[in-house]
Design brief:
By secondary structure, this protein is an all-alpha fold. The protein has one domain. It has helices at residues 2-6, 12-31, 37-60, 67-95, 103-128, 135-151, 156-174, 179-202. Helix 3 (37-60) runs antiparallel to helix 8 (179-202), helix 5 (103-128) packs antiparallel against helix 6 (135-151) and helix 7 runs antiparallel to helix 8. The N and C termini lie far apart (56 Å). 29% of the residues are buried.
Length: 204
């Protein structure tokens, strides 16, 4: 009861000061992105190489009959991109006084799981039913959803990247003939452009 009696409503000045402190902490937490610009450029480069290998596979056999080498190629691209992103993002996070493994980082990872998981399941479905040639817009849309979800916890550039993937995925679904060139532009070009923007803003 004594504790209850000692409580008092904060004054207008105290409330304003509390809001200022909270605002500064929020701005500080988002001022620097932990994402590395170099990882975006390297992921884009790896994606372009994956597209070139895919084109070579398509010349030798139809994509439906070359499903295994196709999936193996892109699995290697994904593993390379994820590995490089983890190492470079960890280095960049240390430079700005953050940790890559944090509560916020876990929230971002969980936010991306539904989109990425759906993309993986849809890929297996298309593969089993001989429709792997239709996988490109699925990848763009699912990846765009995942990136937009991560963008809710990060800088606006991340959400913009996800929105670009969604737009390109929708276009590719309407015009499936542009599938592989759209992959070069999206997973290759968008990642490189994003990496350059982030590098200019927060450094490599």
């Amino acid at each position: 009861m004594a504790i209850l009696r000692e409580y008092r409503e904060p004054t207008a000045r105290e409330a304003e000061e509390n809001l200022r402190v909270i605002r500064e902490l929020m701005e500080r937490s988002t001022k620097f992105s932990t994402f590395s610009g170099l990882s975006g450029v390297m992921a884009g480069g790896a994606s372009i190489v994956g597209c070139l290998v895919t084109r070579s596979i398509q010349h030798q056999a139809s994509l439906m009959r070359a499903g295994t080498p196709f999936l193996l190629t892109w699995s290697m691209v994904i593993l390379f991109a994820v590995g490089v992103d983890y190492l470079l993002t960890k280095r960049h996070a240390a430079r700005v006084g953050k940790r890559i493994v944090s509560r916020l980082g876990k929230q971002m990872a969980f936010a991306a799981i539904p989109g990425l998981g759906t993309g993986a399941l849809m890929t297996l479905y298309l593969w089993r039913h001989g429709l792997l040639a239709d996988v490109y817009p699925v990848w763009m849309l699912c990846y765009g959803i995942a990136v937009c979800a991560v963008g809710l916890f990060s800088q606006r550039e991340v959400k913009a990247l996800g929105t670009c993937f969604l737009a390109m995925g929708a276009l590719t679904m309407l015009v499936p003939e542009i599938g592989l060139p759209a992959m070069v532009l999206s997973f290759g070009g968008f990642h490189i452009a994003y990496g350059l923007v982030m590098a200019r803003k927060d450094g490599w």
